[in-house]
Amino acid sequence: MGDEQKTEEPLTGTDTPATAGAESTEAAPAVPTAGDSPAATDPPVAASDAGDSAPSAAEPSAGAKPSAPASATAGIPGQTLPIRKSKKWFVIHTYSGHEVKAKQALLERAKAMGHEADFDEVLIPEESVVEVVKGEKRTSKRKFFPGYILVRMDLNDSTWHIVRDTPKITGFVGDNKNPTPISDEEVAKMTQQIKEGEAKPKRKIHFEEGENVRVISGPFANFSGFVDEVRPEREKVRVMVQVFGRATPIELDYLQLEKA
Q1: How buried is 152 (Cβ within 10 angstroms: 0-12 exposed, 13-18 middle, 19+ buried)?
Q2: Which of the four pLDDT bands, split at 50, 70 and 90, describes residue 77?
Q3: pTM (2 decimals)?
């Protein structure tokens, strides 16, 4: 390739092909003399002419694929789980009755391990319920799925071990080694049910036909009778009570009754 470069170099009218050690018989002020070094007459070899030389370490050779950056190839030693770029919802099994403690322990452990950003939200599916205790109305929480919590997270080896090693948690639901996320639609249904339960708490009391009850509020307070019909969709009960010696049906709300 270097020889081709030399043959293409144009010669002036006063130039003659020079050989090693030869002197020019005619000198011109603007033309280098043959007594100069060979580098003065021979054109410099361009970087592209060095075809037989090894490519520079700083410049990859033509056609070579660039190597992947270290951050893209470096991973956790022994990694077996795929790294998910977007966060997904996973169902996690906990000790029954310890859902709240498991949630707190998981978030604290993630923060201590430097993976707080990998966990977005921990949801405990529950609803508000109303019950009457000794004539007083009380509101409490009832779990949809006792022993389970929902976690929105990035799943990789590090976060998998964080979940598995958290107290009160036994592991992922399904394939524990490579768990499958649940859809956002399923989670949306649960969150909607939670919102409805907070807006209108459900009654925790359940009655059966023929059961003896006592009225605790309203115009028939302190009357006793038995359940004639239960209407759970309306949370109403028809009760037969004695009024002036006659069995009289009255419709009452769940919270107006207690079991005798």
Answers
A1: middle
A2: very low
A3: 0.50
